[in-house]
Write a structure and sequence with these properties.
The complex is a heterodimer of chains A (about 900) and B (about 750).
Chain A (H helix, E strand, L loop, with lengths): L1 H10 L9 H18 L8 H25 L7 H6 L6 H19 L12 H13 L10 H13 L14 H4 L3 H25 L4 H12 L2 H6 L6 H20 L7 H20 L3 H20 L6 H33 L12 H4 L9 E3 L7 E6 L6 E8 L7 E6 L7 E5 L2 H9 L14 E6 L5 E5 L11 E7 L12 E7 L17 E6 L4 E4 L13 E2 L1 E4 L8 E7 L9 E3 L5 H17 L21 E5 L4 E4 L3 H26 L9 H20 L15 H18 L5 H27 L5 H7 L69 H7 L13 H17 L17
Antiparallel strand pairs in A: 1-15, 2-5, 2-14, 3-4, 4-8, 4-12, 5-6, 6-9, 7-8, 8-13, 9-10, 10-11, 11-13, 16-17
Chain B lengths: L1 H12 L38 H20 L12 H13 L11 H13 L18 H25 L4 H12 L2 H6 L6 H20 L7 H20 L3 H21 L4 H33 L12 H5 L8 E3 L7 E6 L6 E8 L7 E6 L7 E6 L19 E6 L5 E9 L7 E6 L11 E7 L15 E6 L5 E3 L13 E2 L1 E3 L11 E7 L5 E3 L8 H17 L25 E2 L12 E2 L3 H26 L10 H20 L15 H21 L4 H27 L27
Antiparallel strand pairs in B: 1-15, 2-5, 2-14, 3-4, 4-8, 4-12, 5-6, 6-9, 7-8, 8-13, 9-10, 10-14, 11-13, 16-17
Helix pairs in contact in B: 2-5, 2-6, 3-4, 4-5, 5-6, 5-8, 6-16, 6-17, 8-9, 9-10, 9-11, 10-11, 10-15, 14-16, 15-16
Chain lengths: ~900, ~750
């Protein structure tokens, strides 16, 4: 309410040009004149006197402002000057920029070949580049653009996609990998941040010397430097962030010529680069938020600007909606389209995706299968919600609960996934006695079936026992029970309840159809539904996924689909079913959902992870790589990190003070500097907050390099503040301050360049540079001054324990698919290790021996087990001992 | 200045006549305002004045109707219904026999209920928490007692609207709406905390509205009265349930806006300080005092040991009558049998059991376990020689001693080693139970470092309960630590015990205390005379424990529970709740369904209000003249911000909660929404410039519709015994489970 009132004071009386000083003055004076009557008499605090006073003060301040700004020798603040001339960068400025870029090229490209080994997350992104070149589908938690850029760079440099970047420290030269070409791409992107910073600052209205200072700070910033010399995604992300901000700033230089060619151009380029940033990493969402906040602020101000007609206002609104919402979405979709069309072969990312999705990849042929499912059909049943695989059983028993045969979900297709759908004992008898016992009978919604495991002759069974992992009392164990010749008991009865069908085949909701019908299997006695929740069984369960029977389960995780349907009696011409081809949008949505889920699952601790609150003061860096006497450690240039943080804090402090002064009626304009401060430093500070604070909400592991986009924005804020705060000082003092900052930066750049480039260093130099105890790069790695050989490890006194560099992004690729059926329909048994659905658990398992493979199908063994089962059945489980009918007292 | 004070006094004395506001004149500049649309209002916006002969009778009428709906057939069902098993049976029983117990809610409302049970019954007998009440137990009385709070809601709604300066018809409508909501009704007919909570919330809203209305005459008696009433209501509401903190937040935000406005006003510093100080005293100190007083009564009443002991620190337990901790040997000697408790709340007692770690060293697990159990017993031994505590000389355990701890049941020694990392906190070392007492393994040795002693008995020896100490591992220099981290299923979800390498010796996770101590050769003493506790620390600890147990109520998101519902579904009344688990034929059924007409229309108003604000402000910003009638803007903001803000603050936070949520968690928000509904009716009547008569007609029609809705669902509110088939037509949404549950299998 209050801000609206203030807006009325500001805009209403002299609304035709909000930026014009003169009209503001007339506006203020008219408010002053009208004060006694415009205020609510209902106001409790008698604001009349106050407002009168305020407007008097406001008037005098405004007047002073004008006087000063016209007499100011150094670049005037007044917006009026910018009003009528087009933004441009002078020839001298271009020349300066050229020299800066030359210097930056040396700084950024020097020793790019060093080290000739795999560093940090090159493990992943190098590998992914290879997969693009091979075209095999993989899964990663990041959108594709940055990785495809590496693939393109690799292709240009001559990388063939064979080298697999398996671990940190592998040698590139021996493997003949053109890694320099691949590293050149991020290095050039990093280099271009220097001119981008310059132009951005210029477009935000800063003086030439400040622009040059900003560009040089970015050039000599060690963290940006280190991060952009390796095969890592952040350089691309920061590059597109920079481009977006630059075009956004340029867009505002055109705000007095709305809907002109340049206006449209800058706006669209902003949108395109927003999309690009988003397609590199989802951190781009924060950038969208930043631009969004500023758009809303801008539109809100335009609302009170009576020189804009409602029609124009709508055009403003629509233009921004198209450029900043539609265009980024289209760009995002476009890069995914490229991603999907490049990765057209089946690969280790398949297991994360739905069967519909997998079916679009070469090498996966889920084929088609007879549509209608009959009693007696042999089927393979897929769990719908989790992509965790097929209902499976094998000749191993549970070690808990009933100790009967295990029933699991298994991700690969083998014969142990086959179940025969049969009638109940009573139905079977009735059917045999009916007129035509050989007629095929389709399974309908509501039918009760029994599921016979095809290879082991156990029946899918459940009873009042707790499952091994999910031990809630509303969960029942699901087991395989019975033996050949045993007629089964009533705990084998499952009711088919079809919940979803294919809308184009209306019958699929009433009759069971392969692929089309999504159904639940409800245990008749226990009234529970067959359920799975991606929980892994212990080692005795071969780490396959637990299946249980859940009472009162919600629908999604109890849905199943028949995927293959085999029945000798089905006529040849019977209708077939196959998976639908998903559209691009569906594929992107699915990939995005999986990325989201997996991303949130990355909660395992990492030796170099850090929480966001430690970033602005750079509590700790990250070790990327180390060898005998050299190392690469991500550490920023301290003075830039700390001062840029201070600049943002000062901005916040100034805003608080101004807020309270505004409330008292002093609408200070500070010679126009306030407006400038808000437009430039305000924008970067808001961007900084939006690129930093959301990380607090994330539970996943976080690293220092997640702060880099925010850091760049904070540098803009620092340089912007410095420019504005020193404008009223004499030129000399201003230049001394700027030079001091620059010199300090360059000094620190040299001091820490050893761990940025991985170049030789001395122990003394290293120890001296440890300003914070928590910076944990290993100084014992470096030789002492004067020593010729590195100290033998045994002689190191009190060596602090420094974790070795490990890759930051966890490995989430699954194992390659090992088998499918051969032409004769028999499965070739090369059972792969149990599949990993949860990348987190996969991570945990990386260093363990491969899990034992279930030994099944040994017929002799099977017979022995059958016998044991029979014995047990007579003693432990006599027929229907656990068939006690569950009562649901809450039902009438 | 004096003129202003004079004006303020005149304002207090009589109704302020809203001075006609001068409309801003058209701009000189070429401008594009939206369409001009003058508003004429026949009803001036001014402060309501109490008229006993009208308002008094209306309030009385509302109270009588409300009393009828809340009390009709209140004793029909003699079953212990819904959470009556806690509030009417278990907790009140324990208050009456003084046994200490733990619950997630603050004590005030439960104390009131216990008082009513004391009046009704007098005895402190234990009753079955399920099934029927004993035939001689006067449950009707206790239900009537809580129903009183429900009855108070309707007059409070009238008064609140009155102080928000709505017209009488709308005030009366608000009262009727509160009466005509089935959910508000049914939840105040049982012995539950919701009725007191709602009543105190409504009281807080009413007093802040009254306070707002007296803002012209600061520091007048009426102003002070409303301010103190607000503070008192805030204290009472937060002592009933923590949902009350949302009301505190509402008043806090209101006060911040008010102070900000005052800041813009150039008032003398002394006046400003007085304003500020008055608010600090009444709105911060007074509620905290009431909140703490309720806990003081809670502790004073619960003087005996009971089922909740284990949630509190040993020192507190030792002071309870009848606690096992209050009588035991004091000085710990070698050979004593000890239960060691971590000072970190929620970590429990040092525990071991014959199960092994699944990986790492694969030695025997050591965990933290919160329940009393013989697996928590450890024998403290000297290093080197074998234990023989019946004949060895009796030596006290001193600060700096190196000791060994033997798990009594398995005879394994508390052990740690450098080679293996702890299983969850991977920066720490693993702690196991390993080895035999006769083995000379330095990895079994731990050094005692005393952290804090009871000053009256401090002598460098370890004493039961009063001495806090660290156990430092002799070879690796790490500290035995239990930070309350849960182990995976192989550890039975007990808490992790590790050896912490991050040396933060003051951290509670690294501090241990001897909770139980047994040694046949040492005489027991009465700990109650030695142990001291402070009310503040007990109070803080209990509040932390409440938060912990509150957050532990996590639902299984894959399970459909016919009781739970998610916050998004509440305003639309998608998942009403069966108040009795049993829904069989012949049962008296109560169904917690709101009056859909009220719920849906109030939800609509809650969505509408911000849109209206935006609409009016856009028009104003575009310079449309006559957007507001005189005084209307202030009225729209002053009343709307409290009602809509209250709705938001009582609703949105539930989205952020991980715990289980029920539909009645929406009731406080609903109360605000209902008042907002009445406010919007009033607002539209005024904007349409309806006269006295048509306005009465409109309001009456609204009231009749809502009452009809109430009657339609009344059988489920008053207890239904008939056939469920007759209720088919009352299942308005397919998700309702009045008649049949779509998730039933």
């Amino acid at each position: 309410m209050a801000h609206l009132e203030s807006m009325r004071y500001r805009k209403q009386p002299g609304g035709n040009a909000g930026h014009d000083e003169a009209t503001v003055i007339s506006g203020m004076s008219s408010v002053a004149a009208g004060t006694p009557t415009t205020l609510d008499s209902d106001d409790a605090y008698g604001a009349d006197g106050a407002a009168g006073l305020n407007s008097d003060l406001g008037y005098s301040y405004e007047k002073k402002d004008l006087d000063f700004s016209t007499s100011s020798t150094l670049a005037p603040f007044a917006a009026g000057d910018r009003q009528h001339q087009r933004f441009c960068i002078s020839r001298n400025q271009w020349i300066t920029l050229g020299f800066i870029v030359l210097a930056a090229a040396y700084v950024r490209l020097w020793r790019l070949s060093n080290p000739a080994q795999v560093v940090f997350d090159e493990v992943h992104f190098g590998k992914f580049a290879g997969k693009y070149l091979n075209g095999t589908y993989f899964f990663d938690v990041h959108p594709p653009l940055a990785k495809m850029m590496f693939a393109a760079a690799g292709r240009l440099a001559g990388y063939d996609g064979v080298f697999d970047f398996k671990s940190i420290g592998l040698d590139y030269i021996a493997a003949n990998v053109p890694y320099i070409g691949m590293r050149l791409m991020p290095a050039l992107l990093g280099l271009s941040m220097v001119p981008i910073t310059y132009v951005t600052l210029a477009a935000l209205g800063h003086a030439a010397d400040a622009c040059a200072l900003g560009a040089l700070l970015v050039c000599f910033e060690n963290a940006l430097l280190t991060q952009s010399r390796l095969i890592l995604l952040d350089a691309s992300l920061i590059f597109f962030t920079g481009l977006t901000v630059m075009f956004w700033a340029l867009f505002f230089t055109e705000s007095h010529r709305p809907f002109g060619n340049r206006w449209w151009g800058y706006l669209m380029l902003t949108g395109v680069n927003l999309g690009n940033a988003l397609s590199c990493k989802w951190v781009g969402l924060f950038l969208i938020a930043t631009v969004g906040v500023w758009t809303v602020k801008d539109l809100w101000e335009k609302l009170g600007d009576l020189s804009i007609s409602p029609g124009q206002y709508v055009r403003h609104f629509v233009a921004r909606a198209v450029a900043l919402i539609v265009v980024p979405v289209v760009v995002y979709l476009f890069w995914f389209q490229v991603h999907f069309s490049v990765l057209h072969k089946s690969g280790d990312g398949n297991a994360f995706m739905s069967p519909e999705f997998q079916n679009t990849l070469d090498g996966v042929n889920l084929g088609h299968t007879p549509r209608d499912v009959y009693f007696g059909s042999r089927v393979r049943i897929r769990h719908d919600a989790t992509n965790a695989g097929y209902l499976h059983s094998h000749l191993s028993n549970y070690e808990t609960g009933s100790k009967q045969q295990q029933v699991t979900l298994y991700g690969f297709r083998d014969d142990n996934n086959y179940w025969v759908l049969t009638r109940t004992e009573a139905d079977e008898e009735a059917h045999q006695n009916s007129t035509n016992p050989h007629e095929l009978q389709q399974i309908k919604d509501g039918d009760t079936v029994r599921l016979l495991h095809w290879r082991t002759h156990r029946r899918l069974h459940s009873h009042n026992e707790r499952p091994p992992v999910t031990t809630n009392d509303y969960q029942n164990e699901v087991s395989g029970y019975g033996w050949e010749g045993f007629n089964g008991d009533s705990n084998d009865h499952w009711r088919v309840q079809i919940l979803e069908g294919d809308s184009s085949i209306p019958d699929s909701k009433k009759k069971l159809m392969a692929i089309h019908s999504k159904f639940r299997l409800i245990h008749v006695n226990q009234r529970c539904a067959l359920f799975s929740n991606r929980k892994k069984l212990p080692k005795w369960g071969h780490e396959q996924v637990e299946v249980s029977c859940m009472k009162s389960a919600k629908f999604p995780k109890t849905l199943w689909r028949v995927e293959s349907n085999i029945n000798e009696n089905i006529p040849a011409k019977a209708p077939l079913a196959e998976y639908r081809r998903p559209s691009l949008i569906e594929k992107v949505l699915e990939a995005t959902a999986v990325m989201w889920r997996v991303n949130n699952g990355l909660t395992k601790s990492h030796p170099y992870e850090s929480r966001p609150h430690t970033w602005p003061w750079m509590r700790r860096g990250m070790a990327f790589w180390g060898s005998d006497n050299r190392s690469i450690y991500l550490l920023g240039t301290p003075i830039i990190w700390w001062l840029s943080f201070v600049a943002v804090i000062i901005f916040a402090g100034v805003q608080v003070v101004m807020f309270f002064r505004d409330r008292r009626g002093f609408h200070d304009r500070l010679l126009g500097a306030r407006e400038r401060y808000m437009e430039s430093v305000g924008f970067s500070s808001v961007g900084w907050v939006l690129h930093w604070v959301p990380f607090f909400l994330m539970g996943r592991q976080l690293f220092l390099h997640h702060y880099l986009p925010a850091l760049w924005l904070a540098i803009l804020a620092l340089v912007g503040s410095l420019d504005l705060f020193t404008r009223r000082l004499s030129r000399k003092v201003r230049q001394v301050i700027m030079f001091a900052l620059l010199l300090a930066t360059v000094r620190m750049y040299f001091q820490y360049s050893h761990i940025a480039y991985g170049s030789p260093w001395t122990r003394q130099g290293c120890e001296r540079s440890k300003w914070l105890k928590s910076w944990d790069y290993d100084c014992f790695r470096f030789p002492e001054l004067g020593a010729t050989t590195p100290v033998a490890p045994g002689l190191k006194p009190n060596v602090p324990e420094v974790p070795m560099p490990t890759a930051g992004a966890p490995d989430i690729g699954g194992e390659p698919v090992a088998i499918v059926r051969n032409k004769n329909g028999e499965a070739q048994h090369v059972p792969p290790p149990a599949q990993n659905f949860d990348p987190l658990e996969h991570e945990n398992k990386l260093n363990e021996p491969a899990p034992e493979i279930h030994q099944d199908h040994l017929n002799s063994n099977s017979a022995k087990l059958d016998l044991e089962m029979k014995k047990k059945a007579t003693t432990v489980e006599p027929g229907s001992s656990d068939t006690a009918v569950a009562t649901n007292e809450e039902h009438e | 200045d004096s003129a202003r004070q004079h004006a303020a006094k005149r304002d207090c004395a009589a109704d302020s006549q809203a001075a006609p506001k001068q409309q801003p004149t058209g701009s000189k500049f070429v401008a594009y305002p939206l369409r001009r649309e003058p508003v004429s209002t026949s009803v001036p916006y001014q402060r309501n004045r109490w008229n006993s002969s009208v308002d008094g009778w209306l309030v009385l009428l509302l109270t009588v109707i409300c009393a009828f709906t809340r009390l009709y057939q209140i004793g029909l069902s003699n079953r212990v219904s819904w959470d009556e098993s806690y509030f009417n049976v278990r907790f009140s029983g324990m208050y009456l026999n003084h046994s200490y117990h733990h619950d997630v809610h603050p004590p005030l409302a439960k104390l009131l209920i216990s008082f009513s049970r004391f009046v009704a019954d007098g005895s402190n007998r234990t009753m079955e928490p399920k099934g029927n009440y004993p035939p001689d137990f006067n449950y009707t009385f206790t239900r009537c007692f809580t129903a009183l709070f429900g009855i108070g809601l309707a007059p409070l709604a009238y008064l609140t609207c009155f102080h928000l300066n709505m017209q009488r018809q709308a005030c009366f409508l608000a009262g009727l709406l509160v009466i005509a909501d089935n959910a508000l009704c049914v939840m105040s007919r049982f012995v539950l905390l919701d009725a007191p909570l709602l009543f105190f919330t409504a009281a807080a809203l009413c007093s802040i509205a009254g306070f707002q209305n007296t803002r012209h005459c600061a520091f007048s008696p009426a102003w002070w009265r409303w301010l103190l009433l607000t503070g008192a209501a805030l204290g009472l509401v937060s002592s009933s349930k923590w949902v009350g903190f949302f009301a505190v937040a509402l008043v806090g935000l209101y006060t911040m806006e008010e102070l900000l406005n005052m800041y813009a006003d150039f008032m003398p510093a002394s006046t400003a300080i007085k304003h500020f100080g008055a608010r600090v005293a009444a709105l911060i100190i007074l509620p905290i005092a009431i909140y703490m007083a309720s806990f003081a009564v809670h502790f004073a009443v619960l003087s005996h040991s009971g089922p909740g002991d284990a949630t509190m620190p040993p020192a507190f337990q030792a002071r309870l009558y009848g606690s096992k901790l209050s009588y035991q040997p004091f000085t710990v000697m070698y050979g004593s049998l000890l239960d060691l408790r971590s000072m970190h709340p929620g970590s429990g007692l040092l525990h071991s059991h014959p199960h092994k770690y699944p990986d790492g060293s694969q030695q025997q697990q050591v965990t933290g376990y919160s329940h009393s159990d013989s697996n928590n017993n450890w024998v403290i031994m000297r290093t080197g020689n074998e234990l023989n505590y019946t004949s060895d000389p009796l030596l006290p355990v001193k600060d700096g001693d190196t000791v060994r701890l033997m798990h009594k049941r398995t005879s394994a020694m508390l052990h740690s080693h450098r080679n293996y990392k702890a299983h969850v906190s991977t920066h720490d070392y693993e702690v196991t139970a390993y080895g035999k007492p006769e083995w000379n393994d330095t990895n079994n040795e731990w050094r005692i470092e005393i952290h804090k002693e009871e000053s009256s008995v401090a002598n460098g020896e370890v004493h039961a309960i009063t001495t806090q100490f660290r156990l430092r591992h002799a070879t690796t220099n790490c500290l035995l630590s239990a930070a309350g981290v849960k182990l995976p299923p192989w550890g039975f979800r007990q808490t992790e015990v590790s050896c912490s390498r991050s040396q933060s010796p003051r951290s509670a996770a690294n501090l241990w205390v001897v909770e139980r101590h047994a040694n046949p050769r040492v005489p027991s003493v009465d700990m109650r005379s030695i142990v001291k506790t402070s009310f503040i620390s007990n109070f803080l600890r209990l509040n932390m424990e409440m938060a912990r147990s509150n957050n532990a109520l996590i639902p299984d998101r894959d399970k459909y529970n016919h009781l739970e519902s998610d916050p998004w579904s509440w305003p639309f009344l998608i998942y009403p709740m069966r108040l009795l688990g049993s829904w069989k034929k012949g049962d008296i059924k109560y169904y917690e369904v709101g009056n859909p007409l009220i719920w849906w229309s109030s939800a609509l108003m809650c969505l509408l209000y911000p849109l209206q604000l935006a609409y009016y402000h856009v028009r104003q910003a575009r310079g449309v003249p006559g957007v507001w009638a005189p005084g209307e803007e202030r009225h729209f903001w002053n009343a709307g911000k409290l009602l809509w803000g209250g709705w938001m603050l009582h609703y949105l936070p539930f989205f952020a909660m991980g715990r289980v949520t029920y539909i009645h968690h929406y009731l406080p928000a609903l109360y605000f929404a209902v008042l907002l509904l009445a406010f919007e009716v009033d607002h539209f009547c005024r904007r349409l410039a309806l006269g006295e008569r048509p306005r009465t007609v409109v309001v009456a029609m609204c009231a009749v519709c809502m009452l009809a809705g109430f009657c339609w669902f009344a059988p489920l509110t008053f207890g239904y015994t008939g056939s469920m088939n007759d209720l088919k037509h009352r299942q308005w949404l397919p998700t309702w489970n009045i008649y049949r549950d779509k998730y039933s299998m």
